[in-house]
Amino acid sequence: MMIGVSAPWQLRTGSADDLDIVGPLWVAVHHQHAQTMPELSPYVSDDHTWQVRRTLYEDLLTKPGTLLLLASIDDRVIGYGLAHIMAVEETWVADTWVTGKRVGEIESLSVLPEFRGSGLGSHLLTRLEDHLRAAGVDDLVLGVLPGNRDALRLYERLGYRPTWLYLSKFTGRD
């Protein structure tokens, strides 16, 4: 987004009542995962991924400090971000790095494909970070599939650095 130019989208805080409209946006992330890392196929169905993710979001939205941001144009939701706060002892961070007592996690960030590259992802991420900092949390983590190069570029441009890498060995894949 260019300075001095107003964004074409509006942001609002969401709640568990908004999860039905978040579903298709999470499924878009799921499709991005499958597209950027086809070598990990087969992937679970759209219904299954959303059922599992929705349960996670319902749990997170009951915790203090969780923020769900929804971006829309007119009445169409085109992106969202969800961040939450954890005690550092509940993370994979505590045994390796010196941090504050709480760590913020950018749990999810999704922008519909036709709006990627518009600055919306950066805007959502910055707003989530601002929220976490206002809650006294300066140390942040997020996860990304290594094949999702566009997301990696966004996160690295905003100061995130690789810190932990999971490797998987799933049955039936090369």
Q: Could you characterize the architecture of this molecule?
A:
This protein has 174 residues and is of the alpha+beta class. The chain has one domain (10-157): Aminopeptidase. It is 33% helix and 22% strand. The chain has 4 helices and 5 strands; from the N terminus they run βααβββαβα. It has helices at residues 19-36, 46-60, 120-134, 149-157; strands at 10-14, 67-73, 76-87, 102-111, 139-142. Helix 3 (120-134) links the parallel strand 4 and strand 5 (139-142). The longest helix has 18 residues, at 19-36.
Known CATH architecture: 3-Layer(aba) Sandwich
- Biggest pleated sheet: 5 strands, mixed
What is the count of helical runs? 4
Mean pLDDT: 93
Strand composition percent: 15-25%
Radius of gyration: 16 Å
CATH homologous superfamily assignment: Gcn5-related N-acetyltransferase (GNAT)
Write down the overall geometry: globular
What's the order of the H and E elements?
Answer: EHHEEEHEH
Defining key terms:
single chain; 174 residues; alpha+beta; Aminopeptidase; 4 helices; 5 strands; 33% helix
Please outline the helices and strands.
Blueprint: E1 10-14, H1 19-36, H2 46-60, E2 67-73, E3 76-87, E4 102-111, H3 120-134, E5 139-142, H4 149-157
Parallel strand pairs: 4-5
Antiparallel strand pairs: 1-2, 2-3, 3-4
Helix pairs in contact: 1-2
Summarize the structure.
The protein is α+β, with helices and mostly antiparallel strands and 174 residues long.
